[in-house]
Amino acid sequence: MLITPERLGIMVTVVIVVAMLMLFFRYSKLGKAMRATAQSQEAASLMGISVPGIFSKTWALGSALGGIAGMLIAPLVGINTELGGVLIPGFVAAIVGGFTSIPGAIVGGLMVGVLENLGGVFVSSSFKRVTSFIILIAVLMIRPAGLFGKPPRKMV
Q1: What range does the domain containing 87 cover?
Q2: Within a 10 A sphere around the Cβ of 39, how many other Cβ atoms?
Q3: Are residues 17 and 105 in contact, defined by beta-carbon separation less than 8 angstroms?
């Protein structure tokens, strides 16, 4: 597959957005509040964080990122009624990488993409989506929190 200027632009945009997200969650007050709320709503509330406000801002950020992703993928796949199939590998990649790790989600995405395409080479290309589910089941059986995710602590 050739790297066209369109694909190069998408890759550069993705790298920039991911870097901005990592900086946002690590250094900004709102990003830290979002991380705190994700870890423990009760503790975040006790620290003076407005949990419902954080939920609203998180929803808005997620919607904006979904819009950016849609704008980036639309020129490559076009717009049709079967576009929902693009969500499955993305969701599997997030689970494989771990929901608590942005670098894990990136590695999970690369892993799912490579293994899905290799599965299409060695088996029929119509079974590419099945490869995603096989990866999902294998990771959930071996490490339910994902490869880079932190397993939940058990309280005694």
Answers
A1: 80-149
A2: 11
A3: no
3 dihedral zone (left: phi>0; alpha: psi -120 to 50; beta): beta
pTM of the predicted protein model: 0.65
Contact 135, 117 (CB under 8 A): no
Contacts of 73 (CB under 8 A, 6+ apart): 86
**96-142: pLDDT as tens digits:** 888 877 888 888 888 888 888 888 788 777 777 788 888 889 988 98
How many domains does one find in the chain? 2
Our measurement of the distance from residue 86's CA atom to the centroid of its chain's CA atoms, rounded to an integer in Å, reads: 13
Rounded Cα gap, residues 71 and 50, in angstroms:
32
- Gap between the Cα atoms of 123 and 120, Å rounded: 5
End-to-end CA, the chain: 53
Among 79, 104, 122, give the residue marking a domain's end. Answer: 79
Cα–Cα dist 129/119, whole Å: 9
Q: Phi and psi at residue 72, in whole multiples of 5°?
A: -75, -35
